[in-house]
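Q: Hi! First time doing this. I have a protein sequence and I read that you can turn it into a structure. Is that right? Here it is:
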Amino acid sequence: MIYSGEMNMDKDPFKEYLRESEPNKATKGYVWSTAVGLQAVDGLKPSQYLIDTAIQNIEGKITLKEAQSLIESYYNERPVRVSDNERTEEADKVSSRIAELLSEAAFSFSPNEYIAIHRKLFRGIYKHAGKIRDYNITKKEWVLDGATVIYGSASELRATLEYDFSQEKAFSYKGLSIEESIHHLALFVSRLWQIHIFGEGNTRTTAVFFIKYLRTLGFFATNDIFAENAWYFRNALVRANYTNLQKGIHETTEYLELFLRNMLLNEHNELHNRNMHISGLLKDTKVDIGTSKVDIGTQKMDIETSKVDIETRLAEKTLNFSTKTIMHIRVLYEKFGDCQFFGRGEVMELLGLKSSGASKIISNMVQADVIEPVSGHGKGKYKFKEL
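A: Yes, that's right. Below is the predicted 3D structure, encoded as structure tokens:
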């Protein structure tokens, strides 16, 4: 059977298996749910073929090794390659490799293990798989309004990595409350991620390593937290590593702790990316972990209830957009959803896209019937529609 491309990821295709009474199916469901969900941190989306193959594995019809072999053969024999923009092949292969790693009990808490995970995930995909970068990097972050985290210096990456590992290895969780333990775990994983020792694939590598490390501490998460909140996880890591004293912004692990409490304690704290955006921070803003909502000030109404949920609108229109496209539209909606006008220039600036990419996003939104052109504000201006 030939599959033409991506699947609709508005819903986790493995969710039903997480509730399975049969332990083996539930475990496999979690593994695949996490593996596929983590692709969203880089705006990637797996193919329907990957999902169908994963379900065969969960159902016990094929082994994990057979599933991986099918994925490899699928791309080796496929007559038409997926476009570079969608990177579906990367999403499929890395998903199957994450599933394999999360299915293995073997683990060593060491820098070499961390690097080995990157090598296993991205071999044949990135030339630098398993190699420490030798150049400095910056990345424009939506959650920071275009600013970047200060990542580890290329000349000190190995030394910094080894130091963080030695500090965590020497740390004792004895006598700590669960809240204190989660706070420390948030600090550890955020610092590990901040080093960013690889050119690409840092968040997925860090997540896989962290999940396996948590198991050694007695935490065996079996929910769909990564399947539904992978982008939140990445943005929480960003906020845990950004300070701007001039703007009154300080690094904080509070959002990451909410994520971990949902993941490890099965709490139901609401996880909204918009709450982490630095433009929404007010002086009296604070996150109350004891409640299920994050208060980002009294001046803004909850977008969930007062505005159109952009992803729901897209789902209603049954448009097969990539995860990255949907995230871009969501970012634009959160910026311009209050009846603000915008054009290609604003899209380019906010998303860091070239002219052609910005035009394509606008075209997609027009096609989805979520924006409409406006007159009297200059040529090529649009606004989001209201229900």
